[in-house]
Each structure stands twice: as structure tokens, then as C-alpha cells.
């Protein structure tokens, strides 16, 4: 039963009521106070104070100060008047019950309105932030486009200037060449004239045979005629060139040679290169590092660590397309499928990883244990407990000291026994 607080003091003015409520020996928080326009309640177990106020108050502006074991209320009246008492007197139980329920209902409605108002305000702030972000992005995009346009115009001007310089240089070379040809022709004519003078035969064809430059093209008619008379050489005949490659020489002795293994490795490398070349049309948009299966595997591992399992699966898928002989790719993708509840795919990837982890050697023990555990987990989640137990027992054979796998295997055995007894 609560202990009702009857000891309190109060005073009033025309506009406010000042109430002092002693609560010593207990810790009071704002959550212990409930106030509406005509109902005041303080509940601090085991103490309880309740008051149906004489007249309505402004509960929004009213305050309560907690300190030194006393709660001091300042209750502002809605209407300026002097009260005959702090609480209603001579009120029947039905009216008091109605006032209590009405106060609680108003409090709920007020809380609901405040929540809706906060929600609307939050949405408005979010909308404003989104609009501001979009404006900033649009301004940044426009700035980048302007920079691109200015750079393009600058490069275009430089290119046009370069082309003009090249044209001027070619034109200058053409003029110089024409001048040299003209000088050579003049010299040859002078030599012929001198020879004719020495022999005593007059040189009559000087005016007729002298070549005059044509307008625009800067070449002579006789020179162009000589070019026409020249015959072009016949095209080369087709032939086949045979290339012989030097055979590889292995430095190891024949008794220690691993030629077969090295040839197999070379064959696998060539096959991987052919696979990449076959898909080059689909992968041409990728960066250089994105065509590296090891880089993609590390990228998938980081995505898995952050919980982005779909992105990790996509990274492993691309890595498998580039190199489908790496067992760790299938093993890691099986872990992603387990997280995504793709149980059949997890079983397929774990089985493929076990196929590639051959022969069983100490270096791949940890990977084989993980493959068996992940496939066994997928079987158990599909309620195929017998198959799951077989994988767990295979993992225990590889790592018999693993207590976690031993506990999980024991749980599966109990499940199988329980299923057998139920049937």
C-alpha cells in the first residue's frame, strides 16, 4: 500500500499557486511527477501525492524544482482569481474518477501530438538537409563541368595552334624545296649552255625548254611528266614465315626434375590467360587491379568483415570467373551463402573447395576443416543431420583437438537420437 503524503504547504497570488511538498529520504526525478491542467500527481514509492486542483492551470508554463528533499511547484493559473482551497472539496468519487481519467487521456493526447510534431519536424529537417546536399552537389557538378569546358577549350586552342604551325612549317619546306629545284634546274641549263658554247654549236632551245613555275602548285610541267612516266614496282609476293621456338631447359638434374609438374603449371597458366582473354570484352571496363583474383579475394574478405555479404559474393563471383582453380574463393563464398541462408549454394561451394584441396597435405588442413564444417552446418540447417554429422566427424579426423567442433558434433548426435526416438 502507498503512503499518502498529507503534509504540504501552499500559498497563492492572483496569477499563481506556490506548493511545497517535502520528500526526505527518497530520490525524486522528473519522471515521478505527472501534471495536467487540473490534476497533479507525485509518485515516489512508497510515497504518493495526488491533488485534483481547485481550478485549471497552465501546465505548459508551470514548473517544478527538486532539491534538498523538497519539490517546489510554481503553478500558473489560467484565470486570475483567488482559490478557496488547493483542491476540490466535497466532490463525489465519480467526478474525481472522471477528472483522473480525463487527465490521463489528455496527457496521452498531448504526448501523441508532441511525437507527431517531432516526427514532422524531423522530416522537414531531413528534407531540408537533402535539398541542401543536392544543391551543393549540383553546384559542385556545375563547377566541374565548367572546369572541363574551360580545359577543353584550352586544349582545342592549343591543338588548332599546333596544326597551324605544322601547316606553316610544311608550306615553308615546300617553298624551300621548290627554290632548290629551281636553282638546280638553272645550274643544269647553264652547264649545257657552256658546253654548247665550247663546241661552237649555238644553243637554240634555251627559251623553249626553260620551265616556268605553274601558278598555285609550284611544280614544273617537265617534272610532272617525268613522274607520270615512272613505273611503280610490282607488289611483293605472299609467303609463309615459319618460326621455331627454343625449347625450355630446366636447370635441375633429371633425377630431381619436375618437368611434368612445371609443364602442368604452364598449361594451367595458359588456360587462365585464355579464359581472361575470352571474357575481355565483358571485363574491359574494369581497372587493372580488378582483374586480379587475389585482389578481388581480399576485397571480398573486407566486405564480409563489414557484413556486406552480397557485395562479398559479387567479388568472389568475379574472382572465380578469372580463376576457377583457387579453393579459398569457393570456401569464402560458402561462408557468405551461409550468412545469406543460401544453403544449397553453400554446400556446392564447400564441395568444390574440397575437390580443389587435393591432395590432403598439412598446408591445407585448416581449409579442409573449414570446408567440412561449413558444409556440415548447411546440412544441419536443412535438417539433414546425418550428412552434417559426417562432415563434422571428417573435420574432427583432421583436427581432433578442436573442442568447438567436438561440442557441435555432440549436439548433432543428440538431435539425431531425439529424432530417432520421436519417430
Strand residue content:
5-15%
The third-level CATH topology of the domain at 292-417 is Serine Threonine Protein Phosphatase 5, Tetratricopeptide repeat
- Unreliable stretches (pLDDT < 50, length at least 5) are 201-225
- SSE class: alpha+beta
CATH class of the domain at 292-417: Mainly Alpha
**What would the principal axes of the Cα set say about the shape?**
flat
Report how far apart the termini are.
Answer: 55 Å
The main sheet comes to:
4 strands, mixed
Q: Residue share in helices?
A: 55-70%
- How are the strands of the biggest sheet laid out side by side? 1-6-5-4
Question: Mean pLDDT, rounded to whole units?
Answer: 82
Strands, count: 8
Instruction: Specify the number of helices.
Output: 12
Q: At CATH's second level, what is the architecture of the domain at 292-417?
A: Alpha Horseshoe
- The arrangement of helices and strands along the chain is EEEEEEEEHHHHHHHHHHHH
Description:
The protein starts with a strand and ends with a helix. Residues 201-225 have low confidence and may be disordered. The longest helix has 107 residues, at 93-199. Helix 10 (365-381) runs antiparallel to helix 11 (385-398) and helix 11 runs antiparallel to helix 12. Among the domains are: 3-90, Immunoglobulin-like, CATH 2.60.40.790; 92-163; 292-417, Alpha Horseshoe (Serine Threonine Protein Phosphatase 5, Tetratricopeptide repeat), CATH 1.25.40.10. The chain contains twelve helices and eight strands. The strands form two sheets. Strands 1-6-5-4 form a four-stranded mixed sheet, with helices on one face. The protein is 59% helix and 9% strand. It has 423 residues and is of the alpha+beta class. The chain is flat, with a radius of gyration of 49 Å. Strand 2 and strand 3 form a beta hairpin. It is found in: Cell projection, Neuron projection; Dynein axonemal particle; Nucleus. This is Dynein axonemal assembly factor 4. Residues 166-212 are annotated as: Disordered.
